[in-house]
Amino acid sequence: xxxxxxxFLGAVLLLSSFQLMADSIKLGxxxxxxxxxxxxxxxxxxxxxxxxxxxxxxxxxxxxxxELIIRNxxxxxxxxxxxxxxxxxDEGVDMVFGGSxxxxxxxxxxxxxxxxxxYFGAQTSSNATTGSEGHTHMFxxxxxxxxxxxxxxxxxxxxxxxxxxxxxxxxxxxxxSTEESVRRFTDxxxxxxxxxxxxxxxxxxISDFSAxxxxxxxxDATVLVLVLFGDDMVRALxxxxxxxxxxxxxxxxxxxxxxxxxxxxxxxxxxxxxTTPWEWMIPYQFDFARGQAFVESFSNQFDLRPxxxxxxxxxxVYQYKDAVERAGTTRTDALIRELEGHSYSLLKDxxxxxxxxxxxxxxxxxxxxxxxxxxxxxxxxxxxxxVVDSISGLEAAQTLEQWQQERRAANKPLxxx
Length: 417
Description:
Layout: H1 3-23, E1 25-31, H2 38-57, E2 66-72, H3 77-89, E3 95-98, H4 102-114, E4 119-121, E5 138-140, H5 145-159, E6 165-170, H6 173-186, E7 196-199, H7 206-218, E8 223-227, H8 230-242, E9 250-253, H9 258-264, H10 266-269, E10 273-276, H11 282-285, H12 289-302, H13 308-327, H14 332-339, E11 343-344, E12 351-353, E13 360-361, E14 364-369, H15 372-375, E15 385-391, H16 393-396, H17 400-409
Parallel strand pairs: 1-2, 1-3, 3-4, 4-5, 6-7, 6-8, 8-9, 9-10
Antiparallel strand pairs: 10-14, 11-12, 12-13, 14-15
Helix pairs in contact: 2-13, 3-4, 5-6, 7-8, 8-9, 13-14
């Protein structure tokens, strides 16, 4: 074959590659690869990767291949916002999703809105994400603090109605929002009767958690609520164990993930009460066939169990695919219309993207961590949780009037803008 023909064929292959890239649908994953929420970030990446791989193996989205382009937020709002701008302006992504911090998600979502893209919030729990800071281009798959607290409150009031509580809270928007919501649903708003200690975020040290727990130990509280997440929760819960506080206090963690539980360890986790929208054993307990298939596929491919974080990222990719196929386009305005009010079932029972605030309504489960001997029976030593209560998404979420009250208090329009 002569040199001219080789050059011609090379040019054709190069143009074909460029055409493939031009025709692909690009999704930007903005997640914490490093920092205190890195374990949750890894699960997001694996869940998203699996969804993209499955979709491409079955023909892509409307016949177009899907690319996953990733950026590391490090858990920093400014970095997350800059990543979002770069993903849209330089990489040309059609949608951005991710986040394990509400502050990062809120900042990133505003950048996506200004550039005409949807931002799907993954693991973001502050009420503000789809409340006071909500807008037309933000959709949140994860339950907010109000929903979590509603589920917790139902269980705690039935079992610890007359107890004194103490709150140890991360000093940022998610921590404030979650503590406020749990207090509301447990009738523990009086700070004099039910004390609190704040810990710095994102730069808390062991000494900060130790000092806060000394305050809890000095109180008469019998319920200790750790409004912490990621590595912060892990460090604090280990200190709780070392200080012997579990012997006289019921430990409550408003938001738990499998990764956090594994880092703490089965012995220390035993008896801890928490909430989750999904964990890998739930599809088996409630016979959700699609959820079971996801667990098997994820476990076989990555040699670990998926957490709620992986399930959230996986579900977001599929929800975007379904919205594009229903709309017949990747145009953001058309996708917003397709998502608003849409109900579906994927890895669990029915979920809905609520129209007025773009909050995903879904069942929230209250779980209690099992004894160690039960946890380690699982092949991957990951069978941590038993469901002790649950609440439907519609029952758990704010009403329109309550949501509008939050918007009014923040001097925001009473409809998404």
